[in-house]
UniProtKB/TrEMBL annotation:
Pfam families, per database record: Kdo
The protein's name in its UniProt record: Kdo domain containing protein
InterPro entries registered for this protein in UniProt: Kinase-like_dom_sf
Domain of life: Bacteria
Length: 259
């Protein structure tokens, strides 16, 4: 098996330390997230800093070949996109390293290391807890953050509730960190349609769309009603596709269960 380790020269760690962590990855039991596809663990480095390590599952038989020869791994893309976001002036947990394991003809697994960010909440809390303190103000500042991404030509394809960490840094002042970065596009400019579509995964709640739509209208200099209407239509389109897909999965599971 071949192993590729890339370490950020600006961070205090070594290939040896990163390699050792991966070799003992299964022994780390400090989980941030434990999923069937991917898992995120945290570990203290020799420097004393705490890092998060995201392990990406072994891809299916087709993608084993694709990732081996034609496409960058999710770990490498996460690492490169994090560096690009920082270069463009946006926040994301600091990229430290990525690791890939492969054979001569097949891709196996990959890992992305970044610094731990202790957030106060994610966007998800704003969806699930309508009484969250200062919720409207956070939504307005989040909208400005998203507008700034769009102005920089950044299309974050996984702009969903769990992928923005929010940190309070002062009275009525918040910072926003993007995570789960492996699906992003960088454009010279973004159309109004694409900008509105980028809000579609965030919330099914119309009152939240109205708050964000009003704020975005001011920033883009368009009529409030037009922005809210398009943003809400894009959200409904996504929700319909999402719920339809979930229903299909449920039917399939029921059929398999009957066999």
């Amino acid at each position: 098996m071949m192993q590729k380790i890339v370490v950020n020269n600006n961070y205090k760690t070594t290939q040896t330390e990163i390699k050792s962590i991966i070799e003992n990855f299964n022994l780390i039991d400090d989980y941030i997230a434990k999923g069937t596809r991917n898992s995120i663990k945290k570990k203290r480095l020799e420097s004393g800093r705490i890092v998060t390590i995201k392990s990406f599952k072994i891809p299916n038989i087709v993608n084993k070949f694709v990732y081996r020869f034609f496409r960058k791994s999710k770990a490498e893309r996460s690492y490169e996109y994090a560096k690009e976001l920082i270069r463009l002036g946006f926040l994301t947990p600091y990229p430290i390293a990525f690791v890939e394991n492969k054979t001569a003809v097949s891709f196996r697994d990959s890992y992305y290391f970044c610094e731990l960010v202790e957030a106060d909440l994610t966007y998800r809390e704003l969806v699930e807890i309508p009484t969250w303190e200062n919720r409207n103000e956070i939504l307005k500042q989040f909208t400005k953050f998203t507008f700034d991404l769009h102005e920089a030509g950044i299309e974050f394809l996984d702009h969903s509730p769990g992928n923005t960490l929010i940190k309070q840094v002062g009275e009525n002042q918040y910072e926003f960190y993007l995570v789960d970065l492996n699906r992003m596009n960088f454009h010279d400019s973004m159309s109004f349609e694409n900008r509105m579509k980028n809000f579609s995964r965030l919330t099914p709640q119309k009152e939240m769309i109205e708050i964000m739509g009003k704020e975005y209208a001011k920033l883009i200099n368009k009529p409030e009603q037009e922005v809210i209407e398009v943003m809400w239509n894009k959200t409904q389109e996504f929700q319909y596709k999402f719920l339809t897909k979930q229903a299909q999965k449920k039917k399939l599971k029921a059929l398999i269960g009957k066999k």
